[in-house]
């Protein structure tokens, strides 16, 4: 994130410094965490503001993990159950290579397909 470009996009007139983040995120295609760090480095926010922001991010992440949404739960939501079951069944029977099943299932590691089968109820 070039300093001059970041400075030119930063708007001090906004009610909250965090209101700058969506625009900057689209422009630089980096996380809001990285943007907050850059804002701190350039003196747009204080160490205290940065610390509060990061604490809130960490807390939100922990709350997401505690919500019970596992990787496999998300995969089941992303891919049709019928398709997932067909691919897993073929892979575990040896009719489909595990690496091919992995690609069809959106990147589930080949050695984790058996675990995904259990999550699918197979």
Task: Tell me the layout of helices and strands.
Blueprint: H1 3-9, H2 21-28, H3 32-41, H4 47-66, H5 71-78, H6 81-93, H7 98-104, H8 113-120
Helix pairs in contact: 3-4, 6-7, 6-8
In short:
This protein is mostly helical and 122 residues long. The protein contains eight helices and no strands. The chain has two domains: 3-66, no CATH class; 71-120, no CATH class.
Describe it for me?
The protein is mainly α and about 120 residues long. The protein has two domains: about 60 residues, no CATH class; about 50 residues, no CATH class. The protein contains eight helices and no strands. Helix 3 runs antiparallel to helix 4, helix 6 packs antiparallel against helix 7 and helix 6 packs across helix 8. The termini are far apart. The mean pLDDT is about 90.
Features of the shown structure:
mainly alpha; elongated; 122 residues
The SSE order reads: HHHHHHHH
Q: Provide the structure class.
A: mainly alpha
Structurally, the number of domains stands at 2
Calculate the terminal CA-CA distance, rounded to whole Å: 48 Å
> Cα-atom Rg, whole angstroms?
21 Å
Mind describing the biggest β-sheet? none
- Could you list the spans in which at least 5 consecutive residues all have pLDDT below 50? none
Percent of residues in helical segments?
Answer: 55-70%
- What is the tally of helical segments? 8
| Shape category | elongated
Mean pLDDT: 89
- Count all strands and give the number: 0
- SS strand fraction: under 5%
């Amino acid at each position: 994130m070039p300093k001059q470009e970041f400075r030119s996009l930063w708007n001090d007139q906004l009610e909250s410094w965090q209101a700058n983040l969506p625009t900057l995120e689209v422009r630089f295609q980096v996380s809001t965490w990285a943007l907050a760090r850059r804002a701190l480095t350039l003196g747009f926010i204080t160490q205290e503001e940065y610390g509060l922001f990061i604490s809130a991010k960490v807390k939100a992440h922990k709350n997401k993990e505690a919500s019970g949404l596992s990787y496999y739960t998300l995969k089941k939501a992303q891919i049709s159950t019928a398709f997932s079951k067909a691919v897993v069944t073929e892979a575990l029977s040896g009719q489909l290579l595990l690496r091919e099943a992995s690609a069809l299932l959106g990147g589930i590691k080949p050695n984790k397909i058996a675990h995904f089968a259990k999550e699918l109820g197979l």
